[in-house]
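Data deposition worksheet. Section B asks for the primary sequence of the deposited chain exactly as it was used as input, without tags or linkers unless they were present during the calculation. Section C holds the resulting structure in token form. Section D is free text for depositor observations; keep each observation to a single sentence. Incomplete worksheets are returned to the depositor.
Section A, Depositor: J.P.
Section B:
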Amino acid sequence: MNTPFPQIHETLVRAARCGFNALLVGPHGVGKTSMIMSVARDLGLVAKSFCASTLDPFADLIGIPVPIDKNGDKTMEFVRSDSVNQAELMFFDELNRAHPKVLNAILEIVQFKTVNGERLPRLKCVFAAMNPAGDRYHCESVDPALLDRFHIHIPFERGPDPDYFVQLFGVTNGRALLDWYFADLSDEQQIQVSSRRLEYIGQCLEKGINPYYLRPEKMDWPIRKLLKRWKSAPGLIEEFFRNGIEACCARVKKDINQAFRFAGFLPTLIPKELADAHRVLLSLPPEILARIKADAPVVFENTRLALARHRDEATANRFQQELDLILEGPACQSVNSATVIAPS
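Section C:
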């Protein structure tokens, strides 16, 4: 299954099984809604999805009052859609764009799994999603009393999930999209290109649609670099690792040109590749490690984080200790003040 952010997915699966309510908060286009729908599918739950911003509390949730005659006594009964009564997982998207009357009805559902005091017979859990309140989004802060009814609060970070994009588009095309996002886009451009937008770009490229037409108005993205990466696949990374990690270690130790070539790849590697390549990084000559420390120290931190995520914390700590020993050693110190020029 193509699921972004597998750790979050597993957490939501566990929450649903336990009957816990969960709230996902993050920017647009990062996969919050698709994540929740995939949880329902995986568990075989009947899901009812609402866009909270357009809900009517009576027509959609409580029901419409209808006069009925019971044995001559006239009364009113609330009639609502049977899909609400059959829901096992209820999902409210755009939670903080809802009208206060809608939020009051949602609060009752989240806390008691009831509507106007009437138990929803099959409801097991309630999930919701929203954008963070602030200058970027025209949405309000949510009442703390409602927020407190959610057992689990999950922040969604911006940025594409590498495993998801590789699964979705394959190693070659997925890597081209990821390299473009992480290496070619500025911080501001990365905010503009949501994970959903990047997925749209990949889908259109596969269908031969020019990505110039995928930019919203006034967005300036390096489309030529994207097309160059897309057309040059399979990338050089796959070629470099073809013979295995140990062969790569020997290669960068023996040939300074290959060492510089590998160092140039490092900022474009996805986390799983950084974890796999950490031994090669430690095999680079001291002068190159000194240059990375001066020009792109984030490579070292990203490698450590990748190891903690894809291996374990002990491996990440060992990597950091070995790296520190090299960087603090005499061979590296002797080149710290020198200008290192890559061979042509």
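Section D:
The radius of gyration is 26 Å.
The beta strands are 22-25, 47-51, 64-70, 73-79, 89-93, 114-115, 118-119, 125-130, 152-155.
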